[in-house]
Amino acid sequence: xxxxxxxxxxxxxxxxxxxxxxxxxxxxxxxxxxxxxxxxxxxxxxxxxxxxxxxxxxxxxxxxxxxxxxxxxxxxxxxxxxxxxxxxxxxxxxxxxxxxxxxxxxxxxxxxxxx
Length: 115
Prior knowledge:
This protein has a domain at 2-60: lambda repressor-like DNA-binding domains (434 Repressor (Amino-terminal Domain), Orthogonal Bundle). The chain is built from 7 helices and no strands. The chain is elongated and about 55 Å long. It has helices spanning 2-13, 17-24, 28-35, 43-53, 57-60, 72-82, 86-101. It is mainly α and 115 residues long.
């Protein structure tokens, strides 16, 4: 399961297993074994790979359907947010914070407001 998800995901991101190995400090031979379905990385190496690929360990192990652990709408929002410039990210954050203060958009009205 890991190898199939790993191979597909790095292809989608346009990177190679060699680059993942090199950038994470994981030996290339070990990476090739996992890529070819011969075993699964240790917990320590799963953390390195997930951090490098910006995804969850659960995603790499096939326990969640998207690479992050958010509901689909949140996943789409985060993915779009990450594509923005710093200025665009600040604008989105400001809009979200202003919207969260407006009663018409609040999901929960009994949560105390931050000072």
